[in-house]
Amino acid sequence: AQSVTQPDIHITVSEGASLELRCNYSYGATPYLFWYVQSPGQGLQLLLKYFSGDTLVQGIKGFEAEFKRSQSSFNLRKPSVHWSDAAEYFCAVVVSGGYNKLIFGAGTRLAVHP
Amino acid sequence: GAGVSQTPSNKVTEKGKYVELRCDPISGHTALYWYRQSLGQGPEFLIYFQGTGAADDSGLPNDRFFAVRPEGSVSTLKIQRTERGDSAVYLCASSLSQGNTIYFGEGSWLTVV
Q: Using a CB-CB distance cutoff of 8 angstroms, which residues of chain B are in contact with residue A100?
């Protein structure tokens, strides 16, 4: 069965430091992969998505992610974190079927120290 | 409004009561989804509508849960005989059609006491 694993439940970084959030997926075919961010009191917001093509995808708010088929990974990165990036981040994969039935990981909560 | 709208934003109900949660998708979006997010977990798929019909309801946990979308726009998630384990944030999302980017609402936080 398809699944998404986010190994880190909670990460703390200092403002200005680089960030990498890990995501591993289990899926038989070529996956459609997503990263969403959820801030308190706000809905899930799409940061970026990978469907095909270039394995390094750029998203909003300065985030990027790299698809590595050999490692079944889709890690999210940002070179310099801002205090406003503190939120919960979810990796997700689309289950095949012609529509967006998303399977989410459990999320990684990011805290940013000044 | 421009985004997916969900009401109520918060609902506290007693165990055994009936609850309705409403979702107003982005105008023109034919695909609508309901997800449930329990504390400390990622969202879990409940049901998907394409137009008025439920194309996939495989995520509904049991027959106490039901959802409708009679005119292909607004959807209502209905929960009968609520249990404490139903406490969660219920997220609605919509997309222009199947296969397009999904946009989520802010959710309805349900607490069953």
A: 31, 33, 95, 98-102
pLDDT in tens, B70-103: 999 999 999 999 999 999 999 999 998 877 788 9
Pick among A38, A89, A100 to test the B interface (most B CBs inside 10 A): A100
Long-range contacts of residues A103-106, Cβ cutoff 8 Å, at least 24 apart: A103/A2, A103/A3, A103/A4, A103/B45, A104/A4, A104/A36, A104/B42, A104/B43, A104/B44, A105/A4, A105/A5, A105/A6, A105/A23, A105/B42, A106/A6, A106/A9, A106/B40, A106/B41, A106/B42
pLDDT in tens, B32-78: 999 999 998 999 999 999 999 998 999 999 999 999 999 999 999 99
pLDDT single digits (tens) A70-85: 999 999 999 999 999 9
Residue A107 with chain B: CB contacts under 8 Å? 40-42
